[in-house]
Amino acid sequence: MDTLEYKPHYRRKLPHYQPIRTKLFITYRLAGSLSEHVVEKLRQEKEQKEKELAKTTDINERKHLHYEFQRRWFVKGVRLNNLDI
Fold first, then answer.
1. How many CB atoms lie within 10 A of CB 53?
2. Which DSSP category does 81 fall into?
3. Which of 5, 7, 48, 74 has the fewest CB atoms within 10 Å, counting from its CB?
4. Which residues does the chain have with pLDDT short of 50?
């Protein structure tokens, strides 16, 4: 049984809207949830990809490479492969 009362709009620190039968985007603050060595590996990977992108002169290829890099992290079901967490 759902015990939460539906409110189409409410306010705390920011206004919140809850449209009926709509997908919602949820944001989490994950500060401190990854170990420092994992964060460092992610930083290194990002820097390496940025260098690769800077070498690519074709704008369409650059867009494609950038999309593929972001897709790795922002697609449903992503896992942090090859990282010791």
1. 14
2. T
3. 5
4. 1, 84-85
pLDDT for residue 58: 92
Q: Which amino acid is at 15?
A: P
Kindly list the distances between the CA atom of residue 39 and the CA atoms of 19, 60, 76, 80, in Å, as whole numbers in the listed order: 36, 30, 21, 11
What token pair was written down for 48? 């390496």
Tokens at 58, concatenated: 């074709």
Q: Which tokens is 45 given?
A: 């990977």
3-state secondary structure the chain: CCCCCCCCEEECCCEEECCCCCCCCCCCCCCCCCCHHHHHHHHHHHHHHHHHHHHCCCHHHHHHHHHHHHHHHHCCCCCCCCCCC
Q: How confident is the model over 32-49, as pLDDT tens digits? A: 888 899 889 989 988 998
